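User: What would this chain look like folded?
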Amino acid sequence: MRSVDRTDIQLLRALCSDPRSTFVALAQRLSLSRNTVQARMARLEESNAFLGFSRRINPAALGYPLTAFIEVHVQQKLLAPIVVALADIPEIVQAHGMSGQADLLVRVVCTDADDLFRIDGTILAVTGVERTETSLAMGELIPYRLEPLLERGLASTPA
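Assistant: Here's the prediction, encoded as structure tokens.
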């Protein structure tokens, strides 16, 4: 991924505050030409600066008010098929490979404690999963964000 300059950072900050902004709106907001914005956005897209475009949906609106994080300990040689099997569990909304004690950190959503127990059992039933440790999320205190990094980048990038 190429490094970003001050203009790129300003574009990214504007998108963080209003992700649905059009090129025209971004151009007006940043006093740039529409062509400049379009070219910059295309370069950022090509350099994989953007994650997938989707709206963040609150799982509670779908009937899943509880979030839990499950540390999964696996047989390393079976990691690839384990990940495929976990991807088939709809309540798993995110998973990361980890260093340290656990091999995977899996974020799940569930309807209640019984549902969490069922999901944990489904994970444990996957061939190669050795054990799990589950923690119930009590609340999201700092949501996913990049604005502070963009602010830092803007402050450290020459004008």
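Residues 44 and 50 are 7 Å apart (CA to CA). If you want, I can go into more detail on any region.
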